[in-house]
Amino acid sequence: MGTFVQQCINGLTIGCTYALVAVGFTLIFGVLRVVYLSHGAVLAASSYLGLYALAYSGSVLIAIATGIIGGALLGFIVEYMTVRPFRGQNHLIPMVATASVATIIQEVLRLTFQGGQPIAYPRAITSALYEWKFSEFRIYVTLGQITIALVAILLVVALNLAVKRSWMGRGIRSVADSEWVSSLLGVHVNAISAQTVALGSSLAGAAGVLLGLTVPAIDPHFGETLQFKALAITLFAGLGSVPGAVIGGIMLGLVEAFASGYLATSYRDLFAYVMMIVILSVRPAGLLGRQPAQRV
Amino acid sequence: MGPAESKLSVDIRAGAGADGLGIAQLIAQTWREQMGIKTARIVSAVILLGAATSTATAQEAWNITTMLPLTGPFTAVSPEMKSGMEIAVDEINAKGGIKGNKIKLTMLDTQSNPAQVATLIREACSDALIVAGPTLSNEARVAFPVAKSLECPAIASNAAAKGITTNSRPWAFAYATPAEILSPSSIELIVKKLKPKRAVVIVEKSDPSASDQGDVSAKSLKDNGVQVETFVANGNDVDFGPVVTRTAGASPDLVVIATIDKAAVGLIREMRKSQLKAAIMLTQSSLSGLVNALDAETIEGVYRYAEADPGSSSDPRVKQFVKAFQDRNSGKMPTFIAVATYDTISLISDMIQAADLSGKASDRSSDRKKFVEKLSGVKDWHGLAGTMSMSAEGFMVKPATVLVSHNGKLERVTAD
Question: In which order are the strands placed within the sheet that holds B396-397?
């Protein structure tokens, strides 16, 4: 029982991290129809910014805020360089362009921060342990894990509100429906495109700092694995669906935790991706994705 | 090609044949056509003088090239590797070099990317008589077959993965001792000391050295009558909770962590959180700056084995090395990583002397063959890591040192 509850907690915290990365990813894809492969590099760069903010200020909140702002600014730049110039062209072009910019960001980090060697965040604050003892078992959780879950939930709710209840969100939704019609109605598509990528990248920035607080060390490539997991989540959860990305992220976290906990640990990733294929074969549009309407 | 003063001089000679002036003359001629005659004459004179000087000084140094992960994910180990090699070169050169000629060490950056190594090893083999690298197993796996095809001796200082030299003999060597020799003796000592009944081995399958050390450790534990379960972890995991929760469920007395440093740090921290009572042992694959940077409380009582521990050695040569290392690294204590690169350069130097190489460009091929023959037959060679011999597979075989962290310091573990 204790192992089961502990694995649930492990899975939920891993899942919240995945969800935070996947939500930004799905937002950008849902609005701009771009496979944005700079997301992992922006996450890593924001993580470095957060590390230095934490070192100077000693405040986790300032570090997270720095990560969010840094991620958003980087998102603006990447959008200006790789998404805007290629709008309306073959979707492979912005995909390759964002992958190229990701490599540039990673190389700059490698050559700038201690030769790219893994660097550990200071742990004093987030390693604080909370434990509950029951008659037969003990479960534990760290402040870092609680922070990840809370901030992830808070940011996803804030994003949902921003998209549904604000003027910017209205513009984002209209561009997601049709760039052409939106531009005819006076929506500034370039501005919406930049705001969308910045919004998605700010979530990657927050995820970068939150992860830095819990993983053993960060390096310029540490966002790559997460980016491809986020891409998988975006696919099986339903392209462009924010609630789908949250549910998908948590599902993947739980599957990984239980596969590691009860089945052969070497097959953990195999189970996760088998789950993705099964979902896609049953629901080709993903868990919460909508089947595109067909013109007749 | 014989020893060369600089990479530039080698490049010029390589394109110009024996006299080394062809490319310089060609460049000067092109410039003469594009610039004024007077300016061109001055530039040409400088180039020709440079080329002639470099040709003249070519016989004054033994060119050894190494490939280090100076940037990228494995950069953490490179300062130690670099210092170890530099100290060895400086000591040899201070004593007059090899046969009166000094060593010129060129360092190439692999960027921690094995894909880069295939190109770099060609460059290294073209420039140098002997290549002291690459240093890591995943890079050596790429470099060794190329070195063999070029008939170029390559010695990897810190690569111990099983079979990395097999298809590249007799040109490939590894200073490191492979896991099948190093791990069993260490495990046997720990089993005698701690008498565990159940053990868990956590292994990182994506790293060749870690994977070998994990597999051999698991087998050695079984051979010593310990019940073993093996789990897998990865340095890129965002949370080590699931593996540690599973490990705790197995109620082990001993946990052997055979991963790279990132995963080892994550696992140790998670085990401390879970209050797992089992003893922890790290294999050599996980030892680097990240592990050494763990605070004393977290690392307390954690066992490890390594090919050498300069900090606890009473050998005067080792003490002298430790002092030289600390002088260059703000008082930091070296580990087996620096010892391995120091010994690799010292071994190369001793073999050049023992094989009586000429170092002339015309004798390059025969020099390399003589060097390889001599190195293959090394027996009871005395390095900083102790007395060692070359195995038929091209690994330097030496005994392991088992250590335990106590009050922030490493202490040697004995069977008593």
Answer: B381-383, B386-390, B396-397
CB A141 within 8 A of CB A7: no
Q: Which residue of B has its CA nearest to A18?
A: B238
Beta strands in A103-143 (DSSP E): 129-133, 138-142
Closest approach of chain A CAs to the CA of B268, in angstroms? Answer: 10
Question: How would you class B227 by CB atoms within 10 Å of its CB: exposed for 0-12, middle for 13-18, buried for 19 or more?
Answer: middle
Type of residue found at B267:
L
Give B224-265 pLDDT, tens digit per residue: 999 999 999 888 888 888 899 889 889 999 999 999 888 999
ipTM of the prediction: 0.80
Residues of A in contact with B265 (CB under 8 A): 120, 216-217
Q: Report d(CA B71, CA B73) in Å as an integer.
A: 7
In whole angstroms, give the CA distance from residue B210 to residue B261: 10
B140 Rama class: left (phi>0) / alpha (psi -120 to 50) / beta: alpha
Q: Hey, is A171 helix, strand or coil?
A: helix
CB pairs under 8 A between A and B: 110
Does B235 reside within a domain? yes
- Confirm whether pTM is higher than 0.80: no
CATH value at residue B246: 3.40.50.2300
Whether residue B347 is found in the same domain as residue B296: no
Q: What angle do CA B188, B189, B193 make, to 5 degrees?
A: 115
What residues make up the domain containing A209? 2-226
**Nearest CA to A175 among A185, A161, A162?**
A185
Q: Are residues B204 and B299 in the same domain?
A: yes
B149 three-class SS: helix
Close Cβ partners of A209 (under 8 Å, ≥ 6 residues apart):
A46, A47, A49, A50, A51, A54, A63, A64, A66, A67
| Contact state of B73 with A117 under an 8 Å Cβ cutoff | yes
CA-wise closest residue to A257 among A47, A17, A22, A43? A17
Q: From the list A111, A221, A260, which residue is nearest B243 (CB)? A: A260
Structural domain harbouring B90: 60-177+336-397
Structural contact between residues B203 and B232, judged by C-beta atoms closer than 8 angstroms: yes
